[in-house]
Amino acid sequence: MADEIPVLDLAPLREGRPGALDELGAQLRRAFTEVGFYFVRNTGVPEALVQAAFAAAARFHAQPLEAKLALPFDTNNQGYLPFRGNTTRMNAVDGIKPPNANAAVFFKRDLPADHPDVLAGRRFRGVNRWPADLPGFREAALDYAAAMEDLGRRLVPVYAAALGLPHDWFADKFREPMFTLRMTHYPQQAPTAPADEWGLAPHADTSFMTILAQNKVPGLSIRLPDTRWIDAPALDGHFLVNGGMMLRRWTNHVFLATPHRVTNRSGQERYAIPFFMDCSYDAVMAPIPTCVTPDNPPRYPPFTYPEFMGEYSGANYGQRGQAAAGVALQGA
User: Fold this and answer.
1) Could you tell me whether strands 37-41 and 220-223 are parallel, antiparallel, or unpaired per DSSP bridges?
2) I need a surface site. Which of 89, 124, 192, 250 has the fewest CB within 10 A?
């Protein structure tokens, strides 16, 4: 099914070839108006760095449960969620399913305890907590997050080109991107497990950009706009990228937020290391000018990252807050 998902080659852009950015922009526009996912290759990210991050995820989840529970998931969406610790409510597809059959740990930008945002208690700007007895784990996670942030920043001008904007249009909105690195463990699901038991239930992401390293253990499927579900192939040396409801809302529904799901009936343990990147904390996202027309007037008022994510996290992770209104707010 690799031919269903466009492949963007960054080699011409990295070589400084004239017109490369606009060519990639045209390809990305097709990807996000027809599929909602694309592969990217020739990124310059070392494969050894990717494999070190996968190994770090496996090491983390192999710890005794008490060690993982010492890093409890908090209101900043940082820390450890145990097996079946979350339920996909926001952006769920075909109704709310049972709790997801995975465990995950979440890290954000590694802010020091005396950072002004930490001292001010700004939500989603907390301090990461790290396992006490895993030498090298923090370094592997942070090195991978830094590489993914760099890749995301290099892709953002391609989005501007895809939307008919000046190539630097997003620059002031991504001065210090918000991001989350999620290290997920999908234990083996029994062949006799109920049909509605999902490693991760069908859903659309919330992010502007999700970058997913390729996984040799299958399990990810995506739902194309024609409603067909296809298994996402694993292409060596590629990353799979998709957009979520933040991108869809910001583009006034011009770009897709394509649903996807995960099962693990492979007979093996499965790990995933998705990297979710968004704009800066205080950036104001109003419908992008080139996405507003007489036939497609603005669908949403301007919003910020904490406003958007506050509703999402409340719905999926149990801090309900005002999340009931968020389902309609974030769209279908």
Assistant:
1) unpaired
2) 192
Please answer whether residues 126 and 111 qualify as being in contact, where contact means their C-beta atoms are separated by less than 8 angstroms. Answer: yes
DSSP annotation string for 216-264: SS--EEEE-TTS-EEEPP--TTEEEEE--HHHHHHTTTSS----EEE--
Structure tokens at 30: 């097709």
**Spatial CB neighbours of 292, under 8 Å, sequence gap ≥ 6:** 252, 298
Taking the C-alpha atoms of residue 174 and residue 169, their distance in angstroms, rounded to an integer, is: 10
Q: Name the residue with higher pLDDT: 245 or 201.
A: 245
Q: Please give the Cα distance from 38 to 40 (Å, whole number).
A: 7
Sign for the pseudo-dihedral over CA of 296, 38, 242, 164: negative
pLDDT digits (tens, 9 = 90+) for 72-114: 999 999 999 998 677 666 555 666 667 787 999 999 999 999 9
Query: CB–CB of 86/316 below 8 Å?
Result: yes
β-bridge partners, 230: 222
Sign of CA dihedral 163, 169, 170, 173: negative
Alpha helices in the chain (DSSP H): 11-14, 20-34, 47-61, 65-69, 116-119, 137-162, 245-250, 305-317, 323-330
Q: Give the strand order in the sheet containing 229-231.
A: 200-203, 260-262, 220-223, 229-231
Closest CA to 1 of 274, 218, 312, 243: 218
